[in-house]
Design brief:
Elements: H1 2-31, E1 60-63, E2 68-70, E3 78-84, H2 89-105, E4 111-117, H3 125-134, E5 141-143, H4 148-152, E6 160-164, E7 170-175, H5 180-188
Parallel strand pairs: 3-4, 4-5
Antiparallel strand pairs: 1-2, 1-5, 3-6, 6-7
Length: about 190
């Protein structure tokens, strides 16, 4: 009898914690300003958005070592903007291709890989660091801890990759994994 009461108390506590976390998340989401429909013009007069030919929405996030990075910091280079998670099997399959391509051709092809880890998907930064070390990733890994960029870039399937030209204009979007050859072909086609 005591075991049943104890088990019920534990279950009630777990439900209470889950409800509290859910409410906190909803309150935090309501306090954020939804900027997805905002249209911004850059100095070139190009509309900001997610369509091919539009300026990729800028953001500022932290890297694994706490350094703040903006997408616009990479202007002048072609950018492979990749959204991924450590629990995603296709993401795990494409990471070695990305790393090999990055090591061999980053300078020659004038590009940068910006890997956006979707840490809001119940992952811990410590686990992401371990993953990056295991896969020997040397390109920038940014942490979307609030899921804001996942919403802004309308990421429903991972991996998803945007290819941006040197001005930050979206030239291609790929839903699903990419390999070294397809990355190189896509980057070569960018201005």
């Amino acid at each position: 009898m005591k075991k049943k009461i104890f088990a019920l108390l534990i279950i009630a506590a777990m439900i209470g914690i889950a409800v509290t976390n859910f409410v906190k998340t909803k309150v935090a989401e309501e306090q954020k300003v939804d900027t997805r429909a905002t249209i911004v013009e850059d100095t070139l007069g190009v509309k900001s958005g997610l369509a091919i030919g539009e300026l990729a929405p800028d953001f500022e996030l932290e890297t694994l070592d706490g350094k703040k990075v903006k997408l616009s910091d990479f202007r002048g280079k072609k950018v492979i903007l990749n959204f991924w998670a450590t629990w995603c099997p296709p993401c795990k399959a494409e990471i070695p291709h990305m790393q090999k391509y990055y090591e061999k051709f980053a300078k020659e092809d004038n590009f940068e890989i910006v890997a956006m880890n979707l840490t809001s998907q119940q992952e811990k930064v410590k686990y992401v660091k371990k993953f990056v070390k295991t896969y020997e990733m040397t390109f920038p890994v940014l942490l979307d801890t609030e899921g804001e960029q996942m919403r802004t870039y309308e990421i429903y399937t991972i991996p998803t990759t945007y290819f941006l030209d040197t001005k930050g204009i979206i030239q291609k979007k790929v839903i699903g994994p990419v390999d070294q050859d397809s990355m190189r072909e896509s980057v070569k086609a960018l201005n």
